[in-house]
C-alpha cells in the first residue's frame, strides 16, 4: 500500500475501509474487456460488497446484479440496476423475498430445490405472473478451495442434485407460472486452480446433452463466479487473470447457437481495491509472542477468524527494522487474530496498519458483537 495515502488516512477515525476507486475501475474494465470479446455477460455478486459507490461503478460498465436476498434485490434496484439485469439465487428464499422479487419483475430466480419451485409457482400464480427460473444444479465438481467456501459438492447444501432431475423435469407441466429459461452452477469461491472451472465446463456440457435428449435447449447458461485473487501479493498482482479465466469457458463450454452465457463474479471484481485501515492501540510483549493489538477486529473483517484466511498486513507508519508479531483485535475471542508470526517493522502505539485485499466479504460481513460501532468507508479517487 502506498505510503502517500498516510496523510489521507491520518485524517479519519479508525478503523475504516478505504476503497481505491482507480483500481476498482481498472479491474472492472479488465473483466469487461475479456468477457465482452466472447459475448459473455457478467452479473456482479452483490454479496461481496454492496456499497453504493462500488455498485455505481459496476452499473456503469453494464454488468448485471447477482443477489442472494430480498434486501440485495432491493439494493440493486435502488442502485439503478433494471429488473431485467437482476438474478436471485439462495438456498432459503423466504416467501416475502420471493414475493418482492416477483413484484419487481426480476430477470430470473436461480432455484435451488424442487420445493422452492413449488413455492415460486404458487406465489407467482397468486399474482397472475410468470416467473423465469433457472435450475441451480449441484454439479458435484470439486473447486479445490477452502472447504468452508466450496459449494458445488453433493455434501454442500446448494443446488438441485443431478439425480433429482429425471423426476423434476416432467413437473414443469404442472407449473404454468414458471418459465424454465436456463441452468445455473456455482462451485465455490477463491478458486485459483482453473482446472476446477475446466471440470465444471465438462459437467455442464454433459448436463446440457442430458436435457437436449429430453428436447430441452435453454437460452441461458449461468456458470456462477468463484475466480480467486492473489491475497499474498496485492501490489504485484492487483488484477485477477480474467483473460485466462474466460478463455477456459471459451475453449471448453459447449455454448449452443444463440445461447447467452452468464457469470457471477464477486471477489475478483472488488477484493483488491479494499483495505481495512486500523490503528495500533497497544503492544504486548509476552514470553514467546509479541502482540500488536489493533482497534479493528474480527467484527470488522471476519475472514481470518472464520476461514483462517490470509490478508497481507502492512505497517504504514514505521520503517524500523522488522520484528515478529501476532496481530490481533480487541474482541473478546481468542480467534480474533488477523495473523500469527508476522514480520512487521517494529511497531508502536498509534501506527497505522493496512489489512489488504479486503474489498470483498469484508464490510458486508461486519458484526456488532461486543456492541461495536459500524465501521465506516472512505473512497480514494
Ligand atoms: C451463487 C453464487 N454466485 C456467485 C458468487 C460469487 O462468488 P465469488 O465472489 O467467489 O466470485 C457466490 C459466492 O460464492 C455464489 O454463492
Ligand atoms: N464469504 C466468503 C466466500 C463465500 C462466498 C459466497 N458463497 C469469503 O469471505 O471468502
UniProtKB/TrEMBL annotation:
Residue numbers of N6-(pyridoxal phosphate)lysine PTMs: 47
Domain Orn/DAP/Arg decarboxylase 2 N-terminal positions: 35-271
Known catalytic reactions: meso-2,6-diaminopimelate + H(+) = L-lysine + CO2
Keyword tags: Amino-acid biosynthesis, Decarboxylase, Lyase, Lysine biosynthesis, Pyridoxal phosphate
Chain residues that bind pyridoxal 5'-phosphate: 226, 264-267, 361
GO molecular function terms attached to this record: diaminopimelate decarboxylase activity; pyridoxal phosphate binding
UniProt signal peptide: none
Pfam families linked to this entry: Orn_Arg_deC_N, Orn_DAP_Arg_deC
Reported cofactor(s): pyridoxal 5'-phosphate
CDD domains, per database record: PLPDE_III_DapDC
Lyase keyword on record: yes
Enzyme Commission number(s) from the entry: 4.1.1.20
Binding site for substrate: 267, 303, 307, 333, 361
One GO biological process term: lysine biosynthetic process via diaminopimelate
Keyword Lyase: yes
Superkingdom assignment: Bacteria
Family to which the UniProt record says this protein belongs: Belongs to the Orn/Lys/Arg decarboxylase class-II family. LysA subfamily.
Function: Specifically catalyzes the decarboxylation of meso-diaminopimelate (meso-DAP) to L-lysine.
Subunit structure: Homodimer.
Listed NCBIfam families: lysA (TIGR01048)
PANTHER family on file: DIAMINOPIMELATE DECARBOXYLASE (PTHR43727), GROUP IV DECARBOXYLASE (PTHR43727:SF2)
Protein name: Diaminopimelate decarboxylase
Organism: Rufibacter glacialis
Amino acid at each position: 500500500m502506498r505510503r502517500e495515502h498516510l496523510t489521507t488516512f491520518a485524517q479519519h477515525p479508525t478503523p475504516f475501509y478505504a476503497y481505491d476507486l482507480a483500481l476498482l475501475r481498472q479491474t472492472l474494465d479488465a473483466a469487461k474487456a475479456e468477457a465482452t470479446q466472447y459475448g459473455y455477460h457478467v452479473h456482479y455478486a452483490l454479496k461481496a460488497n454492496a456499497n453504493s459507490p462500488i455498485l455505481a461503478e459496476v452499473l456503469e460498465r453494464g454488468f448485471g446484479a447477482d443477489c442472494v436476498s430480498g434486501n440485495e434485490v432491493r439494493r440493486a434496484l435502488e442502485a439503478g440496476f433494471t429488473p431485467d439485469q437482476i438474478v436471485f439465487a439462495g438456498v432459503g428464499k423466504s416467501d416475502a423475498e420471493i414475493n418482492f422479487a416477483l413484484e419487481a419483475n426480476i430477470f430470473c430466480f436461480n432455484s435451488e430445490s424442487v420445493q422452492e419451485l413449488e413455492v415460486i409457482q404458487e406465489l407467482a400464480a397468486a399474482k397472475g405472473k410468470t416467473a423465469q427460473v433457472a435450475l441451480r444444479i449441484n454439479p458435484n465438481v470439486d473447486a479445490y478451495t477452502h472447504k468452508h467456501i466450496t459449494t458445488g459438492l453433493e455434501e454442500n447444501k446448494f443446488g438441485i442434485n443431478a439425480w433429482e432431475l429425471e423426476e423434476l423435469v416432467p413437473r414443469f407441466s404442472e407449473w404454468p407460472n414458471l418459465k424454465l429459461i436456463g441452468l445455473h452452477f456455482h462451485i465455490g469461491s477463491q478458486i485459483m486452480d482453473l482446472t476446477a472451472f475446466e471440470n465444471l465446463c465438462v459437467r455442464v456440457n454433459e448436463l446440457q446433452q442430458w436435457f437436449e435428449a429430453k428436447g430441452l435447449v435453454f437460452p441461458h447458461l449461468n456458470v456462477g463466479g468463484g475466480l480467486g485473487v492473489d491475497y499474498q501479493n496485492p501490489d504485484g498482482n492487483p488484477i485477477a487473470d480474467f483473460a485466462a479465466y474466460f478463455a477456459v469457458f471459451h475453449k471448453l463450454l459447449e455454448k449452443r447457437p444463440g445461447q447467452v452465457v452468464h457469470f457471477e463474479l464477486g471477489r475478483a471484481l472488488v477484493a483488491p481495491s479494499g483495505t481495512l485501515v486500523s490503528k495500533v492501540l497497544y503492544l504486548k510483549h509476552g514470553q514467546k509472542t509479541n502482540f500488536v493489538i489493533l482497534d479493528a477486529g474480527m467484527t470488522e473483517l471476519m475472514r481470518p477468524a472464520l476461514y483462517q484466511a490470509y490478508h497481507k498486513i502492512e505497517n504504514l507508519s514505521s520503517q524500523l527494522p522488522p520484528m515478529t508479531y501476532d496481530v490481533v483485535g480487541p474482541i473478546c475471542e481468542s480467534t480474533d487474530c488477523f495473523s500469527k508470526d508476522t514480520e512487521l517493522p517494529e511497531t508502536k502505539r498509534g501506527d497505522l496498519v493496512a489489512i489488504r485485499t479486503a474489498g470483498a466479504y469484508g464490510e458486508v460481513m461486519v458484526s456488532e458483537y461486543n456492541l461495536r460501532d459500524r465501521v465506516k468507508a472512505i473512497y480514494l479517487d
